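Write out the 3D structure for:
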Amino acid sequence: MELKNWIYQNKSLNKDEIDAMSKKYGFNSMISTILLNRGIHTDKEVKAYISKSISHIHHPMGLKDVEKAAEIIKKHIDAKNRITVYGDYDVDGITSTALMYMFLKELDANVDYYIPDRFDEGYGMNIPAINKLIKNGTKLIITVDCGITAVAETSFAKLKQVDVIITDHHTCKEKLPEADAVINPKQPGCEYPFKELAGVGVAFKVILALAVSYNLKASDYFNKYCEIVTVGTIADVVPLLDENRIIVDKGLSMLQNTRFKGIKALIEIAGIADKDITSTSVSFAIAPRINAAGRMGDAKLAVRLLLSEDDNEAYSLAKELNDANIKRQNTEVEIYNEAIDMIASDCDFEKNKVIVLCKKGWHDGVIGIVASKICDLYSRPCILITYDDNFSAKGSGRSIEGFNLFDALAGCGDILSNFGGHAIAAGLSLNPDDTEEFKNRINEYANRVLTAEKMKTNIKIDSEIMPEYVTGKSARVLAKLEPFGVGNPKPVFSMPGLTVVSMSRMGIDEKHIRIKFKHNNMYFQAVGFGMGRYSEFFNVGDTVEIAFTMDMNYFSGTESLQLMLKDMRYS
């Protein structure tokens, strides 16, 4: 069993600091510790975090080029020129496409949308697609969640007298496309105070800027489209900090009684109760079904779902997406098992810090999900590559904290046809003959920057907590700090001196575990997802300490405290 690092974040705090915050704001010490652990110190930061008020949303005009983009879009709307929203096939891209299309349609624009086929065209803009759009009369292309690396494609469009506005959030390369306007908070020279918007968040900002330029009330459109932005933001796993957190908080509240018929149908098919719509249910129930369209077939199916205004059509489309998601799950299991077998048979596996696996025929819509699971399992970066008879290979990778995957790919850029993404998730394409060299090169890079300590799984713990404070009341207080996510994780605590009373594996494949603990006369129920093997290392009667989060479990009209295990070790 892997020994994980337990990192106590409160060790850097002093008691006077915690007491001062508790006294000033009326918090208990648990809440003060959690806020301070997240770097929240000032009045402004505390108020923004606690209130989650729309008043803390940054003005869209702070984005570089956004005013210019609004003027260009208005010009094309007034001229009745055809505008094409060019999106991506993941949830962020799909929600961005639907959002931009809906708003432009509301302004009576002559607008359509285009999402490239994942399998035939790949990610982002491509020249054949641009040619097709030009033949159909497009005069303005607005990219959403893509385009920041499309230097040649943008130049081609401009050569054909087509205006191009790029809205994106991905990491910028050294050279930016020479578009009419580039809106990306990460681009050089952009002084926008928050850099971690999802692609749909950037598109949302452009919409709000356009609303301002039309003298419309931006807050009305914030409320109107917040749910769509919330789904894309959660799905893209961007940090739930600053305005992302405000957007998601408002959006989750509105999703309880959504006005979007397509989302309502998805919620029904996924079997989610209204009160259970959280960032977790969006991540694991709503987003995968939307994502299944682009992974297994045509992403435009999901756009149609989000745009649907008919109950019957929405339910039918949601059913198609649900079926595609089931197919995706089955395909994922097949690839995962094959990948694990390849690792088991590789006698040099331990020598490589980056896992690179390549096989002909793997479904390239699923390899990213499998790479993520393998990355989590082995605590090291993982890239899966698939190729076909056309002699082209595509890869998708996921990384760990401390290893910037985008930078690593940039170091191998001379043997890659294309690459792009973020520090922890990226895609690439290359010649299949170069996969072995790529594996060697990226591992040479990893040997320089990735230490053994960085490859250990870290459990970041807010503080130790005594058993008498592990209660339903505490869990309900913590729930008020939602939404949690990347950058603002659900608070993790440790609790020592527990006796294992009972322990059983659960799930069809027994991957999970249910454990009952005792401390004096107090009993605690805990569940550990993906921790089934812990039953091989611990026994009933053992004295242990656990790292966990607190949740309220609702079942048959009753609620009870349930601990979600992160790790367990001998006390």
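The longest strand covers residues 493-506.
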